[in-house]
Amino acid sequence: MQYALYNAALACAAPLLRVGLGLSRRHGSLRERFSPSLPDDVKGAVWVHACSVGEVNTVRALIPALRSRFPGAPILLTTSTMSGRELALKSIEDARVAWLPFDTRPAVRRFVERLRPCVLVLVETEVWPNLVLETRRAGTPVVVVNARLSSRQFPAYRRLRWLLRPAFSMLSTVGAQNEAYAARYSFLGTPREAVRVTGNMKFDAVRTEVDARSRLELRVGCGYGADTPVLVFGSTRPGDEALAARCWRALRDRFPELRLVVAPRHAQRLAEALEPFQGECPVLRSDIQAGRGPRDARVLFVDTLGELVTFYALASVVVIGGSFYPGVDGHNPLEPAALGVATVYGPHMGNFPEASEALLGRGGAVQVVDPGALCETLERLLSDRQACRALGTLGRKAVLENRGATDRNADLVAEAVAARLGG
To answer: Sheet of 75-79: strands edge to edge?
Structure first.
């Protein structure tokens, strides 16, 4: 009964969404999700779904692990967002890429019937009712890897338990990041014996090195010297740019060689993100690439895709956006920490509790209690390069000590397929 209501609501909403997307310059390509095309030669594929940029970054290590366990099968990676698709096409070489269909029964059923996957691998929380039910109806196991349901997400899932329970109950196997997430999946309907704690794949997914040539090209391209101190505010959200501007005005005269890099999480916020820096003459990374911007500007905004980790590799200190004010719950602190860069974030890290705990437990990151404490923390770190390097070294050690979840999750996928074939 609940899925009759769910599908009726989707059937009413779909025409309106189709019209709205057709009128949108920015999101028009999402209309393809009503009936996604499939690449050639993917029938019988290992199907991996990664919603957006964060999940695509997570599966970078998983896809080679799956390739080693399914050497003869094609791998299809689907995404739900334009940024996720763009990153997948650019950075994932060992998989074909397609859109995930919207969760309407006809769209999902057509997609599954054409693909006939040997397994569906969902990353983190992408448990859509029709996606799971139609895939299982076709006799295909559905495995959730790196599964999580954060404290911020869980109340909504709990309220919708009546709707979600059939889908959660049909999951073949779940590899949860920790015991709390495992318990939440079980509460929503997944049999407890089907849920295992496998750790956090984000420790495996982050890059631990950026090649010297890429670092040099970026450093020279941005006009930074070999010893230029660089402060990066990464994946900033509303409020973060104003905080970055306050810190910059407190630090710029104290450290005359310092350069500031601000990377908004969403490019469409660029105009809003620039507002707190009026009078500072910030330059855009895209303008530098096009030869239009000065290379000696002290404030740079990253409006390009795929360069943030390389900027992290140049940094003296990285500040993680989305962590200083309620509502976002932080972004991935492992990306700079894995590179041995001093990492700082605020009190709101609910999306990355294991990562934060691992870093703090090793003394490999600094968590400030409120935004007002950030400027003082940055001044202290920038004043003591040895302490900065030590913080980064400990952060890198914490990342390396917690790797291995990717292989454990890939083994779960292989076991699910073997169980299906054995059955």
So the answer is: 96-99, 75-79, 46-49, 119-123, 142-147, 173-176, 195-197
